[in-house]
Amino acid sequence: MIIDLLVAEIGSTTTVVNAFDKIKTDFPCFLGQGFAPTTISDVTIGLNNALDNLKLVLNVESLEAKETYACSSAAGGLRMSVHGLVYNMTVRSAQEAALGAGANIVYMTAGLLTKKDIERIKQSKIKMVLLSGGVDYGDTHTALYNAQMIAQAKLNLPVIYAGNVVNQPQVKEIFEKTGQLEYLYITENVYPKIDSLNVLPVRKIIQEVFEKHITEAKGMSKIRQKVNGSIIPTPGAVMKAALLLQENLGDLVAFDVGGATTDVFSVTEGNKELTQFQTEPVPFAKRTVEGDLGVFVNKDNLINSLGLEAIQKELNLDQETLSTIIEHYQPIPESDQIPFVKLLTKEALRTSIERHVGALRYLYGPTGRIKVIEGKDLTMVKYVIATGGALTRLPNAPKIIQDVFARPRKNLLLPQKELTILIDHDYIMASIGVVSDKYPRAALKLLLNSLKVGDLHVS
What we know:
Nucleotidyltransferase, domain 5, 5-stranded mixed sheet, 3 domains, alpha/beta, single chain, Rossmann fold, 5-stranded parallel sheet, globular
């Protein structure tokens, strides 16, 4: 069988392959999905197992795709370190850019790097470094000093410079003198002027560099040989799909609850009347990743958050039965484990949205009480999109989400309107994000079909 498009999503616990056809027509179609546990020892084994499963689903002996794409969060995903001048300015801007591109930030610093920082960077098993610092034509010293420290460390890793534009020639010279020029990528300043974010160019180059250097997970070099299209970080792919949806549906929040992490994506400007109270700029498209909230790899964190007694009471189980469920818990859960997974998923959703959303605060100064907003304003959000293995496979997922948002939280800037909850039934949101650059019209149609939105006009 020959099809137009195959997209592989290599996750930390599960590998999924999605088949699409008629991608260049007005009626693109999703053919089916295969999945298998991810094999960390060699990710190609899990991919081949998922392909075999897809052949069974499609009832074919052979499967050939004209184009093949992929996204990956295996082997820790895109692990990055971020370094800037002032935390609430250039460091935070660089952080927003990296997270939006799909990175997992494992180390951040503000100010001058120290020898201890360099040692931490070396020990962190990062795959990329992002250097920022100074508004354009502002401070030059910090970014240049940090560039010197990174170059002299000879990490042999991609380094993206997104700081003061004045420094660009000198940064290039520093990396050339240390024999690290081949690893240097220079882009626009992520924080060009006070209270101004410029995250899109940085996100784009992060994903391009990731695709060029994705050989870290065992077997990924073989994946690169099989893929003739894009490979980007899975969270970055979901962000692309979220942006595509926002353009056509309206302001939204998307959740991806996985085995190792829970990602939250929000695409909204917020309430314009509240903008005047913002204490710092926030990106239009924001991602937070909760590396401690996963329903398999990090299930113990969720269990501890809920408490074993509370879980027993909620599920009406005795201690022995619950212990047996936890002991035999699977990446792809069995039927008797489903109520337990639902409880973990709900806790992951509750905690992740509370960490993601901004809040209304009151400060007291010489003129009296002042109202300020810290973080992301979600009050204008109309849609909640659920993707990821947990939310797309669990029964009654909308009810889980409704319960989370119905819980009152004082001063948090959560959606104020009645929410429309949409489930990515085909579990293709990340795959759609990967192909959306080349086939945006088909990508939107396929995703709307998966969300069961109905006949929305697609221009």
